[in-house]
Amino acid sequence: MRLKKALTGSALSLALLVSATPAFATTSSSTNTTPEAKALETCTTKPFGPYYSRNEIPNFINDGVKKWYLKGVSSWDGVWYGYYESCN
């Protein structure tokens, strides 16, 4: 009886292992967009300005090489600067 249980258990374990193998073998051809992958991106922050009104500051700037996205603003004596970020 013990031999029968041992053989049945081994056969079931082997069947589960073989049936799960294709799930482990799959690969993704899409780009990696996990938070860990985004943390590895190199981002550059750069101020653009001066602007003389908060409404003049654009949400993004294309300088011909990179596209910069607005991340923050600052003002001093009525002169505004936009802080932009560009990631690779």
Keywords for this entry:
single chain, 88 residues, 35% strand
Quick check: average pLDDT?
79
The biggest beta sheet is recorded as: 4 strands, antiparallel
- Note the total helix count: 2
* Estimated radius of gyration: 28 Å
Specify the structural class.
alpha+beta
- Describe the global form: rod-shaped
Estimate what percentage of residues fall within beta strands.
Answer: 35-45%
**Which strand order does the major sheet show?**
1-4-3-2
Keywords: Signal
Signal peptide: 1-25
Domain LCI fold: 60-85
InterPro entries: Antimicrobial_lci
Q: Care to describe what's here?
A:
It comes from Bacillus tequilensis. Pfam families: lci. Keywords: Signal. Residues 1-25 form the signal peptide. It is a single chain. The protein is rod-shaped and about 90 Å long. The longest helix has 24 residues, at 2-25. The protein has helices at residues 2-25, 35-39, and strands at 43-51, 60-62, 67-76, 79-87. The protein is of the alpha+beta class. It is built from two helices and four strands; from the N terminus they run H-H-E-E-E-E. The protein has one domain (2-87). The relative contact order is 0.17. Strand 3 and strand 4 form a beta hairpin.
